[in-house]
Amino acid sequence: MLRYGARMDTIAPERLMRPQPKTGILEIEPYVGGKASAEGVVEPIKLSSNENVLGSSAVARAAFERNAGKLHIYPDGKAMVLRSAVSTEFHLEPERLIFGCGSDEVFTLLAQTYCEPGDNVVQGEFGFLAYRIAARAAQAEVRFAPMPSLRFDVDQALALVDDRTRLVFLDNPGNPTGGWLRRDELERLHRGLPGACILVIDGAYAEFVDDPGFTDGIDLAREADNVVVTRTFSKIHGLAALRVGWGYAPTEMVGAMERIRSPFNVNLPAQFAAVEALGDKTFQAESRALVLEWRPWLTQQLGGLGLDVTPSQGNFVLAGFPRETPQSAQAAEAFLASRGILVRGLGNYGLPDHLRITVGLEPQNRAVVEALAAFVGPRA
Ligand SMILES: Cc1ncc(COP(=O)(O)O)c(C=O)c1O
């Protein structure tokens, strides 16, 4: 029976027959993560999801275990202990922080809070996949700025911005390209945006950068009314399974997003493990050192095999198969999998000729180069 005055004849017949998702939902391509298993291989070398190959900090794991007895208790919805730890570590005002079930959730909160039908969101054409999903779920149009040389291009992005652009998403460094904007380019991007347009600077890989011209954007966010910086515990801290990320935004923005945040979105053991992880400088230094040692080696070795390797500041490298090469990236991905090595094919990023390879431990890096050398064959 229909109540509250709804009349059958004002509702499209198909909506009365069965539940219908709102406009645009079924056009969203679901997120597909990196492969986690290889046929016939018990423990594959997993270099497909940019995880931390050193695992996670022992003190973070101990905190997780210590809290196993509290699984019947709701977590602190405000994440006060974690808030205080992040605030101290980065010198940020606690009330300007928002925590998410991964930084992915912060992107969703931003889109849900700021976008409505008719609005648009700008991102790089090869930018992180989660942005477009969050934007489309909020019924915003997604505009893709061309990325010549596989780098985010400030002018291309600004050319797409208009008075209905609510968010510009910048992954810095970018996934899957590894490219990055330096301070002057980032500031130019910000200067070119209207005041009502929010610049989201996603620093998921910021800890792996060694270019002194880079900035994580926190200084910019401190002063500006329309800049949000997001960070994650999934990469340098190796806590991807726990799903913890945060955003630093103007107080008013945090207040708006807090209204729709799911009240207990960061679970209890995750909050305490994250606090310990932040304090474990040794683990962070080792994780960074490993990437800084092997990223150039992988870049050089893969380049030596004739692949186009994009300069990267992430914990991964992007390797392209040149047009004239007879072998394809898909065939290489399958060949590596047959040897128990999982890397990320990038068809769904619009880069079907590329593979993304997480920087691994020494034997893993050597194994991937050896296998690709066998795949490519002797070079003339
Ligand atoms: C650029 C970028 N941002 C954010 C994330 C997601 O982070 P989280 O695990 O905190 O949701 C990833 C994960 O791969 C990423 O590559």
Description:
The chain has helices spanning 13-17, 58-66, 80-90, 103-114, 129-137, 154-158, 183-191, 218-223, 251-258, 268-279, 281-304, 329-338, 362-376, and strands at 45-46, 97-100, 120-124, 141-145, 165-171, 198-202, 227-232, 245-248, 308-310, 316-320, 341-342, 344-345, 354-358. The chain contains 13 helices and 13 strands. Helix 2 packs antiparallel against helix 10, helix 4 (103-114) packs parallel to helix 5 (129-137) and helix 11 (281-304) runs parallel beside helix 13 (362-376). The model has no long low-confidence stretch (mean pLDDT 94). The chain is 36% helix and 14% strand. It is α/β, with parallel strands linked by helices and 380 residues long. Pyridoxal-5'-phosphate (PLP) binds next to helix 4.
